[in-house]
What does this fold into?
Amino acid sequence: MDPAWFAVPGAVTAAAITASAAVYAPLRTQRHKERTDDRLLTQLEQKQKIDTVNEARVACLAWLTYLQRVAGDALEGTFITIENFDKRSGELRASAELAFANLVHAGVRTLQ
It folds into this structure.
């Protein structure tokens, strides 16, 4: 038998392995990149949700603190005009409502 017949199956096998590697390696790299990108996106979304929750907490706390201060002042006999109360309380209420709307938009589930 001619020695070339022994080399042909080896060359075909080597070519098949090289072709497989040429296809599989970039595919594997792309899949790894996609998983990494998905993980980073998930972390970013989670950070944004935490920031949104914190913003809602701060807005509600500001409104509550204002209401407590006005109530405390009223108990001590110091009153503010209804126009001033409506203006400031309305601003704080609107800020809290916007913060809760942002929570819903961000997909944060609230207590039910």
